[in-house]
Amino acid sequence: VAFALAHCFFLSTFFGRLSAHVSPTPALTLQMLAGVLVENIPGTREAIGEAITTDASALVRKFALGCILARAGLAMDAASAWANRAKVAKLSCVGMIEMTTVAGLFIALFSLDAATSFAGGFLMAGISLAVVIPPVAEFQRRGLGVEQGVPALIISASSFDGIIAIVGFGICSGIVAAGGGSGATAMAWKVPTQIVVGGVGGPALAKALVRANILSSSTKPSTGVLDASLVLSTVMVILYSATHLEVSGGGALMAIAFCASLALEWINHGCSDALRDASVALTTLWSDFTAPLLF
Q1: d(CA 45, CA 37)
Q2: Which InterPro entries does UniProt cross-reference here (predicted)?
């Protein structure tokens, strides 16, 4: 498995670097092409594609989700998102239209039931986080559109879309696994619980870690790589705990709320350097390691 993952990583990295010479093709496009080639070319399919187990693939996807949620949370301006909540809601509708359209196509073309079709729609909508957040975070770092609030608006809407997609997929897949409509009743109580626990638990955890000087604070110097490691580790614990409790949507919400609140805590305590350094470290981790391995 390690051999197969290493070859996938190096091949995807090579294709990603190649995109710089095939402008304006995004690196993600060629990285996905590398994955398609590995999975479909005879010889490489048996040696690499089929050698990657389901557990290894799930681990990579979970790590990638944690990385992108952490980066999105740190880049989110909670105050700006609340001030522009109407615009965020309108922009989020684009993802919902995409999800509904995909679900409708599944029903029309493949004659699938509603729960399975909407699970597929939510799954497709959830991919937007990995595509949208990294370039917009880079625009924000370079100061492009910051005065107009464009990066903050896009990141807030994409994060909201991602949370809805994860919660929706969890509910629909639960209904499918339960074998019908009774699953909806069994899952109904989890939705408000996920929202409350995720929305309250994330900020509380961020305050606790900063005040305990576990992360950089006004009395502790900034260490970007260490902060990024601790933030990502915390996010991964949240996501795995949520998966174990079958509340994946609440885990995603708590992870984003934790990182957004942490960013606000750092700014309020005059630790903008810590926020910048941790964000740069997570961006580097995503672009140089996680994205090539995922796609």
Answers
A1: 8
A2: Cation/H_exchanger_TM (IPR006153), CPA1_transporter (IPR051843)
